Amino acid sequence: MNTDRSWMWRRLDNNGYLLDEFVERVDQEFLNFAFANPKFVSHGQIKCPCTKCDNRKFLSRKDVHLHIVRNGFIRGYDIWYAHGESLNMRNDACGSLSVSNEEGSRYRAMNFVLSCFCWYL
How many Å separate Cα 14 from the centre of its chain? Predict the structure, then answer.
């Protein structure tokens, strides 16, 4: 998995046109990752991390792609926790993540809460 997520915040060019790289990486990186984690897929749908849905609505792959392309990702959604990624996965992929103790504690708490709720999905 590519650890550089800077593409997530480069949706439009200077003229306001959609960047091809963004569209491709939403599909090839984000959606492939999200749909490869069956614990986070419900009836062929995943939570939509676009700015309007905010990981609250379950949508099909096609609709999630459309929403992200139209609206962009939720600000700061670098760790795809609602789609099966944990801080540990990012640590393994990145070597070491520079996260303060407070941020690390927050992510660990978030992952714990999510793991409890994911049992119900």
Answer: 24
For residue 56, being part of any structural domain is answered with yes
In a domain? residue 80? yes
**Residue 72 and residue 54: Cα distance in Å, rounded?**
10
Tens digits of residue pLDDT in 52-110: 999 999 999 999 999 999 999 999 999 999 999 987 655 555 444 444 445 455 555 66
Q: Are 54 and 47 in contact (CB under 8 A)?
A: no
> In the chain, which residue ranges form alpha helices assigned H by DSSP?
20-25, 32-35, 61-71, 87-94, 101-118
Q: Which two tokens stand for residue 108?
A: 């660990």
Q: What is the pTM of this model?
A: 0.72
The distance between the two most distant Cα atoms of the chain, rounded to a whole number of Å, is 44
Question: Residue holding tokens 């046109």?
Answer: 17
Q: Which domain holds residue 74?
A: 6-118
Distance CA 114, CA 109 (A): 9
Number of separate domains in the chain: 1
